[in-house]
Amino acid sequence: MATQGLAISITGAYKTYDGKKYILKGLNMNVKEGTIYGLLGPSGCGKSTILNAIVGLVGLEAGEINTLMETKKDLGFMPQQLALYDRMTTEETLAYFGHIYDMSEDEIEKRSALLIDFLEIPSSPSGTVALSGGQKRRLSLAAALIHNPPLVVLDEPTVGVDPVLRKSIWDYLITLAEREKKTIVITTHYIEETRQAHTIGLMRSGVLLCENSPESLLSQNDSRSLEDTFMRLSHLQECHKLKEEEEDERIRGMTLKKPKKPEYTKKESFFKRNRFKAEIQKNFAFIKRDFGLTLYTICVPLMSLICFNYGIGYDPRPFNMGVLNDEYPMGVGCQTWKPNDTCEFAGLSCRFLKKLEEKDVFAKNIGSMDEGLDLIRSSNILGVIHFPKNYSEALNTLVETQVLVEDPERDAAIEHGFVQIRMDQSNVVIFHILRQDLQDNLREMMGDLAEECGYHVKTAKLPPLKFEEPVYASLSTGIRDYMAPAFISILMFTMPMAYGVVIIMEERQSGATARSVAAGVTPFELMASHLMIQISIHFLQLLSSSLLMYVFLKYEFHNPYVGLGLLFTLGFPGIAMSFFIPLLMNSTLGASTICTGFVIANVLIGGTFWPVEGIHPIIKPVSWMLPTYFSTLALRNANFKGWGFTEPSIIFGFASIVAWTIIFVGAIYITIVVTKNRVFLGKNAP
Ligand SMILES: Nc1ncnc2c1ncn2[C@@H]1O[C@H](COP(=O)(O)OP(=O)(O)OP(=O)(O)O)[C@@H](O)[C@H]1O
């Protein structure tokens, strides 16, 4: 509680942001009740810092701040940043702060009408983002005055306001102080306008040079303007004070006593219905105004899954190859070759090529290997197949002479009959498919020949591997089906994380969150309201994605309860992460980089593209630590094998989700307690 007659008394305030440079250096300040106090000083001298300390947004290293505030409702605060929620209209903004301050609808309506009229604030149906700088500043001022508080702290309320309106704002503040006994602390860059204040505090280099009425300041310093007074006092300070670095050194050497928590903060309840309602309304205003964006957010997983389904795992045929056929040199080619389905070991290169066309692999004749290599380099063909002169003969020898007796001459002939292939292997996927095609083609052709020749022992036709109906999954299960559970898991975890991070960071950076906290909103209320919105969006994302994947596209989904349960609960660590990342990062860039890193790690080592069994042992423990790792394994088992809640893998999947949620929530709690609200205030937290 402030001393009798004083609305604010500050003694020995010290503040450093980086532990080296002191912004406040033992500042003392006294603001009388029912007066206007103009705080003046050059840019960067610490005016906003001391105001933020008064309203509880910045913590001091030492010093005592006593105010007449009994609760946060006794304070009206207008920060230097506009600190408005972009997507709320003028009326919604005032109603939002009115609800935070527990005002009735009727009171809100009356006060809003009065302030809108007096401050000439236009309505903004598309949100405050559409207001001009001056209009926003006036709205910001109205928000500080909506509940008619006894103490008003205004950080540069008249910047960007025209002189006529500036005068009427000052007239209004004087009326508030003189008729309604309000106490007003105001900073401004227009030195002369503070002549209307009852007291002026001239601040420089973290201390007050003097604190007096404008008249006394002028007469004591024999000046004609406040600007002259300020210059004179600054000059005197310059002559007497130590150099900045020496001053900081001296303060660092002092034993500073941590200040006590202000009395009023102890009375704040951590949850109030009206404040929570205001937060929910604010979040809905965001959704309503930016409906397109919200709809897009809901549809992102759906669109990603559509791209995934139609973009991955399909055959990239046809393939174009070049052929250098020494069996049928240029000019003759395979044109003269006639297919005949008899046991004939001649023209097998042509038979091979003809069969290859069934696989959509087409080979055109080339004149030389050099020509082929040029065509590969210019991306006209993928590779060159080179048939040797004795290709058919070599195959004949291979088939007819069983490999029982050693015969170096025969082996050499066979070796010279090998097909040589040169390829562009830079596209590994295409290379592997094509290699498989060529091998299959040879095997099939040899099988056909063996059948035509009626070999008793079907030498060339290797006994095929026959894959019967699989135990799990189906014969048609492909790479896309394998990847689908991992992909949808990643989406269900990362989408709530990315969405939440952006919203929280955006609000925090505009200064709006800090203002709400100064007005009394608690971290619990902020997080609970965000949580409600995020869960709703996550639910809609899950619903649309599951309908697409499992109902329309019919991906395997043998245990929907477990599958949907895993995907829904996976949103919780994602949401918790969206609260946790802003604890670590001050910039949106930093926060989005962490999100991107998470997505990449999940995709690469979370078993999406490559089985986790094949991950390098050094990296494996990192994979286990990914929030989606065990849940993806569980989802695969539920989707393909139909495993239920009693299977260890499923239990482990759910347990990992719960564990990660607990870890993140615990980390958030600890950080909020340790850094005191940093999650919503950023690095300025008290
Ligand atoms: N969050 C922060 N982290 C680090 N330094 C900060 C932070 N906020 C302010 N500062 C530094 O503290 C000093 C005082 O800043 P402050 O905003 O209090 O000055 P000011 O007198 O209000 O300036 P202006 O009139 O330009 O608004 C500046 O040097 C500023 O860079």
TrEMBL record:
<feature type="transmembrane region" description="Helical">
    <location>
        <begin position="564"/>
        <end position="585"/>
    </location>
</feature>
<protein>
    <recommendedName>
        <fullName>ABC transporter domain-containing protein</fullName>
    </recommendedName>
</protein>
<feature type="transmembrane region" description="Helical">
    <location>
        <begin position="482"/>
        <end position="505"/>
    </location>
</feature>
<keyword id="KW-0472">Membrane</keyword>
<dbReference type="Pfam" id="PF00005">
    <property type="entry name" value="ABC_tran"/>
</dbReference>
<keyword id="KW-1133">Transmembrane helix</keyword>
<keyword id="KW-0812">Transmembrane</keyword>
<dbReference type="InterPro" id="IPR003593">
    <property type="entry name" value="AAA+_ATPase"/>
</dbReference>
<dbReference type="InterPro" id="IPR027417">
    <property type="entry name" value="P-loop_NTPase"/>
</dbReference>
<feature type="domain" description="ABC transporter">
    <location>
        <begin position="8"/>
        <end position="230"/>
    </location>
</feature>
<feature type="transmembrane region" description="Helical">
    <location>
        <begin position="291"/>
        <end position="312"/>
    </location>
</feature>
<dbReference type="InterPro" id="IPR017871">
    <property type="entry name" value="ABC_transporter-like_CS"/>
</dbReference>
<dbReference type="Pfam" id="PF12698">
    <property type="entry name" value="ABC2_membrane_3"/>
</dbReference>
<keyword id="KW-0547">Nucleotide-binding</keyword>
<feature type="transmembrane region" description="Helical">
    <location>
        <begin position="650"/>
        <end position="674"/>
    </location>
</feature>
<feature type="transmembrane region" description="Helical">
    <location>
        <begin position="591"/>
        <end position="610"/>
    </location>
</feature>
<keyword id="KW-0067">ATP-binding</keyword>
<dbReference type="InterPro" id="IPR003439">
    <property type="entry name" value="ABC_transporter-like_ATP-bd"/>
</dbReference>
<dbReference type="InterPro" id="IPR013525">
    <property type="entry name" value="ABC2_TM"/>
</dbReference>
